[in-house]
Amino acid sequence: MSIETSKILGGVGALLMFIGIMPYINYFGAIELVGLVLVMVALYNLASHYREGGIFNSALYGLIMGIVGGVISIAALVIMVLTSLTDFLHTIFPDWNGDWRALSGLTPNLSNLSLDNIMPFVTGIIAGFIILWVFVIIAAFFIRRSLVTLSAKSGVGLFSTAGLLLLIGAVLIILFGVGLILIWISALLLAIAFFRIRPQQTQPTTSAAAPT
Q: Which residue has the higher pLDDT, 68 or 97?
């Protein structure tokens, strides 16, 4: 695959990731997923073109860390919720005998509900978010390393800027709006960076001097 095709795939993919977050455009993450696939294909081909495996490998590690973090955070949330669910149901349904089918015929008694009954669910949500946050930072670190390498090989400094902005956004994602906006902007910068790639010019070969 030519470098021109790779830059188009990467640019279009990053643009899809950028616009996919907008209302009425994102169809259950399908736009971002397509964009991510295109970007990964572009990075793979650029890694081959520049003979630098770290461009793709680092991005792949980042993607894996993001997936693993999502799975672990959801698993931790589900485990903590299920562990406390029975006690919570006994609190609001004092007459419940443990038969799940009997719940539909019972009337909840919310007078017994207190903050202590809700805290396990809040704790589960916070724990899941913290786990996800840590993995997002790790993922952003690997992706930034990929983009820094690509920046050095392609001569497009905007790749490095996009990677740095992505990492800062991941760290600040705990502030919700600030971090997400920075990550969103980094996708736009990434698209621009892809479109700025220029094929490396072939160095002219010097012919041997004619004997005198």
A: 68
